[in-house]
Amino acid sequence: MITVVGTGTGAPLPEEVLAAADLVVGGRRHLDAARLPESAERIVLGPLAPALDAVERALEKGDKERRVVVLASGDPGFFGIVRALGERFGPDRLDVRPGVSSVAGAFARLGLTWDDAVVVSAHGREMRTAVNVCRARPKVAVLTGPGAGPAELGAALADGSADRVLVVASALGDPERERVERVTPAEAAERDWGAAVSVVLCLDEARALGPLRTVAGAPSGPSAWALDESAFAHRDSMITKFEVRALALARLGPRLGDLVWDVGAGSGSVAVECARLGAAVTAVEKTPDGVERIRANASAHGVDVRVVHGTAPDALDGLDDPDAVFVGGGGRELPAIVSACARRARRAVVVAMAALDRVPAAREALVAAGFSCDGVLLQASRLAPLPGDVTRLAATNPVFLLWGTRAPALHEGEAQ
């Protein structure tokens, strides 16, 4: 058997397990803190594969009673080493003794429940997923790693996340070194946090006390989407109609961990719907009244949408690369806007056009950027009442929806 012991958050180590150990694997600080028998072989846990190889060799050369102990931080079954050990040796060979996870410990220090928190790991993974989750959700715990710590997270969130605070929990469980500090993203970006960071919480403190939950983790998706136009403030019916929005959302595929641009956002109906489905969203709009309308619609639906006041394609400079883009406006600049979006989108670009003569140039821009391209002309007729308790069909204006998608092999490193 391999005994996996969670440590590092204040709970005492099981002395009887350590006293009987023949081989102990763990980080240097865990090994230094443990009272181990003189006869026990020690392996400092660095790169995972060599440590697992050493465990396998130890088990092969010993008898069935050879006792291996792995020391890990917090709860080793929560984004921890239990997965790798189980895959290599089988879950039935593991005796897991969990400690308090760093996430539970950090929220406990703040007196906050965390059943409604989203937990995302940036350790050995792309940090963009963690950043986008922090932008989209009000209560997030980020497990950090080299090159993806509080400074890097703060730098990514400093622009456009003014309502967020970062809580950096370091050396949790160490009575002499433990620190729990609240900082702004900009302040976090300016500091050298060292190697003792346990976890970083990203909070919108105005919404940190969420409603009573039945299911833990990220909120379930909305019960409806492609909402009626009446669900949004808009000007003179200048809004993407729900029939068009439904297909656009299907082709954009917004989800937690994604970043979506809504370019020429108008009322922001597409931006808001993408945010309701879990994505981080940046809406680009050139008119001042449009900017305020987008913010009002996002607030009315309880979602976060970053609004950039500017004219595309120039306003796109400096924005983080998106997973998907919706282009709902552009006029004569449409080919240049589509081209700029297509160069940077990781997965999909969707373009809505009322003018059919703009379709060829938009399609050419997508194909030139390496997208496979398809489209459809949407013509809908809605039920409309007539006097005498009868109904007619009222046609909406036709809209051409064009979409480009990248081959799956080019975007396999998506949200984990």
Number of alpha- plus pi-helical segments: 13
Q: Show unreliable segments.
A: 410-416
Number of strands: 19
Secondary-structure class: alpha/beta
Largest sheet: 7 strands, mixed
Cα-based radius of gyration, to the nearest Å: 26 Å
Helical coverage, percent range: 25-40%
- In one word, what is the shape? elongated
Mean pLDDT: 91
Strand content: 15-25%
Distance from N terminus to C terminus (CA atoms, Å) equals 30 Å
Question: What spatial order of strands do you see in the largest sheet?
Answer: 13-12-11-14-15-19-16
Account of the protein in words:
The protein has 416 residues and is an alpha/beta fold. Helix content is 28%, strand content 25%. The chain is built from 13 helices and 19 strands. A seven-stranded mixed β-sheet has the order 13-12-11-14-15-19-16, sandwiched between helices. A five-stranded parallel β-sheet has the order 3-2-4-1-5. The protein is elongated and about 90 Å long. Residues 410-416 have low confidence and may be disordered.
SSE layout and pairing:
Layout: E1 2-7, H1 15-19, E2 23-26, H2 28-33, E3 41-44, H3 48-61, E4 68-73, H4 82-89, E5 94-97, H5 102-110, E6 118-121, H6 127-136, E7 139-143, H7 150-157, E8 165-170, E9 179-183, H8 185-189, E10 197-203, H9 242-252, E11 259-263, H10 269-276, E12 280-285, H11 288-300, E13 306-309, E14 324-327, H12 334-344, E15 348-353, H13 359-368, E16 372-378, E17 381-386, E18 390-395, E19 399-405
Parallel strand pairs: 1-4, 1-5, 2-3, 2-4, 6-7, 11-12, 11-14, 12-13, 14-15
Antiparallel strand pairs: 7-10, 8-9, 8-10, 15-19, 16-19, 17-18
